[in-house]
Design goal:
mainly alpha, about 70% helix
């Protein structure tokens, strides 16, 4: 801190300058190895892509239902909370079926 104060700069500024001075010049740095080849682009079948979009919507629905259920519980709406918990179980069953369908499409 005393060195930064005598240089009339902040501690982070003093550290930054010291680090930059310690780094060797660009010409003396070793060459980087070549980058690995890119993977082939994978384009899913139309059915798999459609199922993916559907399951994405189901996941958003599940998140919204969980948040609504939590809000109902915290507000003391017990019957409504119980109904939402039942709906969440149904959504989770739907998610399981979506995974099974996805596996069948990949066969």
């Amino acid at each position: 801190m005393a060195a930064a104060a005598s240089a009339e700069t902040s501690v982070s500024g003093f550290a930054r300058v010291a680090i930059i001075r310690a780094i060797p010049e660009g010409a003396s740095l070793p060459a980087l190895p070549p980058s690995p080849p890119r993977r082939r682009a994978f384009l899913p079948d139309a059915d798999v892509a459609a199922l993916s979009r559907l399951m994405s919507a189901v996941n958003r629905l599940n998140g919204a239902a969980v948040q609504l259920s939590k809000g109902l519980r915290e507000a003391g709406h017990v019957p409504e909370h119980a109904a939402m918990e039942s709906a969440i179980r149904d959504i989770r069953d739907l998610k399981i079926e979506g995974v099974r369908l996805f596996q069948r499409l990949q066969e």
